[in-house]
Structure formats: C-alpha cells, structure tokens
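Section 5.1 Outputs to date
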Amino acid sequence: MFSSGFAYESLILKSENNVIPDVPATVAAIKNPTSKIVYDEYNHERFPPGEPSKRAFAYFVLTSGRFVYASLVHLLILKFVLSMSASKDVLALLSLKVDLSSIDPGSTVTIKWHGKPVFIRRRTEEDVKLANSVDIGSLRDPQEDVARVKDPKWLIVVGSAHIWVAFRCCPCHGSHYDISGRIRKGLAPYNLEVATYTFLDENKLLIG
C-alpha cells in the first residue's frame, strides 16, 4: 500500500544515468529528458560535410543518370524517324510513271495500281463540254468537273475491283458513270475516286 500524497514516479528507482531501468526506451526518454544525444556508431557511419569521395560519387550517379536518360530519348526519336522514313524501293512501289504520248484522244487506258484499276481517259473537246453541261443538282454525289481534273483533257480516276472493263460501267452492281466519272445510275453511292497524280511534263504522269 502507498500512502496518499506520494507520486508513483518517486518510488521508482533510477539507474546511475538517470534512466528508468526495465522500461521501453521511449518511456524512459519521456520520464528523463536530457540534452545528451547518444549516437549509435555501430550501425552508422558518418562523413564530414563535403567529403570528397562522397561528393565525387554523387556527381557520378547524377551524370550517369542524365546520360542514360538522354540516350533513351535519342533512341526513341531515332526509332520514330526511321519508322516514318520510307526507303527508295518502298517509294517506288507507291508510285507509278505512265507515258501519255501513246493515248489517243477519246480513248481510255486501264493500268493496275495497288491492286486497283486506274482509268486514264484522254478526253476530247466534246467530252469536256458534255461533262460541264451536266446539272450538278441532278447528281447523286454532286461535284463539278473542274474539281475532278487538273487538265480538262485528262481524267484520271480509281475504280474498284469490279470495274475493270470500262470506267463508265460496273457490270456487277449495274452502276453507270458519266465522262467525269460521276455516278449517274445504279447502286454506287459515290463518284469514282480521283487518283493522286502529278504531271511530270506534257506526256509523263506520276501516279501516287
């Protein structure tokens, strides 16, 4: 039994270092505050500020990290550029040169490009007049003739796999097109696609 008026802490014996024995370290620190800090030299190794070997190591790690990062970015950019750049052989397959000098006025030549027929029509003056006389409002896919040609006497359009015989008729779907390759009758909803082409000179054509 403890007499009244005595605090429990006053009855606890303390060691020579003023630390309560057999209690957790945190409890002992609270019960016995002190300005003395004990550093565990066994589990830690301290170096003075600015120690040369450690500073050099830190610089090495930082520099190495930056080098690796820059190399990775450079590699990714190079890979992207190479994937976007086509070789000359690939570009050659994507384009096709055509000699126009052998095509007579009023005739149509069919060539194969990317597995599809490309119709090259050398139109006469009558063909051009007929194409421009059509009422645009009567067309299913309204488009003026001037928007479909670069040179009025040349019409260059891409057909589907069904249209190989003539660019003005598709026997499979019964679709009929005018002298400008515009749909006039049948199931097709749109005009024939205008090919991507460039005139290299008066008698040379580059498709693609």
